[in-house]
Specification:
about 400 residues, mainly beta, 5-stranded antiparallel beta sheet, 1 helix, 30 strands, about 5% helix, about 40% strand, disordered N terminus
């Protein structure tokens, strides 16, 4: 079968970002109010994109109301906070962006709904992790103690946390190392584990890190020289240190990997233009049976909601424009069945998406780099796009509720 080219999210978005920046398009609205009664279409089941116009100005569908979700995203070198409230998604009023200086973000994650972390590669100085505490009353952020945290790596670009919020892991593709930290549950401060960093064998080129739903195992995809393998580690439940799993690495040729919330499966975009579902052996973390399922378009990323019942894939065309999202139901044996209406051609195309923690909102970036949200029915997996996107040029993002 024909191999599929792998595309990083940053490279995919870059072309759109440059075009939009040249046009001078930038978000300048802040229409969310707090403490009111929720109204509008956030939970509406009618299909299609809202016809009420932009989230800014006249014709806006912003009806105010309490915030159900926050989403944080990078616009150039600026970290911005936004809120989903009353059927409207908009930048937070009065949000103060931290001074990160010149540099490049590399992914972003939120731990325990209250700590935001992002690998940060400055244009000069020490590579490190930017960490912030989230104020859930208004979405404001403040630095965690010791911020920025500087691991002993040079090009950190992947990040993952265990589902209980105890440990944080960052990968460095240039040195093939994984740094491990314990997370202070009160302050968000990070402390390196006793034996961090952990060296991967064979000069690996890390792509994506993911922790299984039980918090016992960490998996890392490696695409060095165009051939993908997957590394697996057992997580010490007290210290957070890593120990290679027997048989690791496995020659599964997967790029974007994500473990499902049940801890039963590891899923990844594969070299043949589909999704591979790999069984995780309970009690050992060993990867066993691998089954590939075809998708309409070759995906480069995927997202699994917290209930573990569905998987959604993301693909781009030869001009790096996002194609319609595809959705599949996951049965108890790991088989995938396309959802009704998939690919979702009536919805805007979306770059790689991330779910909020209750699985009712899927956030992503649209063709122009704007922040988009789909409302998801957790029972059926159906999606609607009744919320106008934020017009911006974003790269990395992370949502929380």
């Amino acid at each position: 079968m024909k191999r599929v080219s792998r595309i990083s999210l940053l490279a995919v978005v870059a072309a759109s970002a440059m075009i939009l920046a040249a046009c001078g398009q930038k978000s300048n609205c802040s229409g969310i109010s707090f403490g009111g009664t929720t109204s509008g279409g956030a939970g509406s089941s009618s299909g299609g994109v809202s016809s009420n116009g932009s989230v800014c100005g006249a014709g806006s569908n912003n009806s105010g109301g309490p915030v159900s979700d926050y989403v944080y995203y990078m616009e150039g070198n600026t970290l911005i906070g936004a809120g989903l409230a009353g059927g409207s998604l908009a930048p937070l009023p009065g949000f103060v962006s931290p001074n990160l200086g010149l540099g490049t973000a590399a992914d972003m994650t939120i731990v325990s709904k209250k700590f935001l972390y992002e690998p940060w590669i400055p244009s000069g100085g020490v590579v490190g992790i930017q960490g912030f505490v989230i104020d859930k009353t208004n979405g404001a952020i403040s630095p965690v103690p010791g911020n920025p945290i500087a691991p002993t790596t040079t090009a950190i670009d992947s990040i993952a946390a265990d589902p209980l919020g105890r440990f944080l892991y960052v990968g460095d593709h240039s040195t093939a190392t994984i740094n491990a930290f314990t997370v202070d549950s009160t302050t968000g401060a990070l402390t390196p584990t006793s034996f961090s960093p952990f060296q991967l064998s064979g000069g690996a080129s890390l792509s994506v890190l993911t922790v299984d739903g039980t918090g016992k195992y960490l998996y890392a995809s490696d695409t060095k020289s165009g051939f993908g393998v997957v590394y697996g580690f057992t997580i010490d439940q007290f210290s957070g240190d890593l120990t290679p799993i027997a048989g690791s690495p496995w020659g599964l040729d997967l790029f974007f990997v994500q473990a499902d919330p049940t801890g039963k499966y590891l899923m990844g975009t594969d070299a043949f233009g589909g999704v591979t579902v790999v069984t995780i052996q309970q009690g050992t973390g060993i990867l066993t049976t691998a089954t590939s399922f075809a998708t309409t378009n070759p995906p480069y990323a995927l997202a699994i909601p917290p209930n573990g019942n569905f998987v959604y894939t993301f693909a781009v065309d030869n001009k790096t424009h996002p194609l319609p999202v595809e959705g599949f139901q996951i049965d108890s044996t790991g088989n995938l069945t396309a959802l009704t209406g998939s690919p979702f051609t009536t919805l805007p195309g979306m770059f790689a998406g991330k779910f909020d923690q209750d699985g009712t909102a899927l956030f992503g970036l649209n063709t122009t780099g704007g922040v988009q949200v789909f409302v998801v029915d957790p029972a059926t997996g159906a999606m609607t796009a009744n919320v106008a996107p934020i017009a911006t040029v974003a790269t990395y993002f992370a949502p929380t509720n």
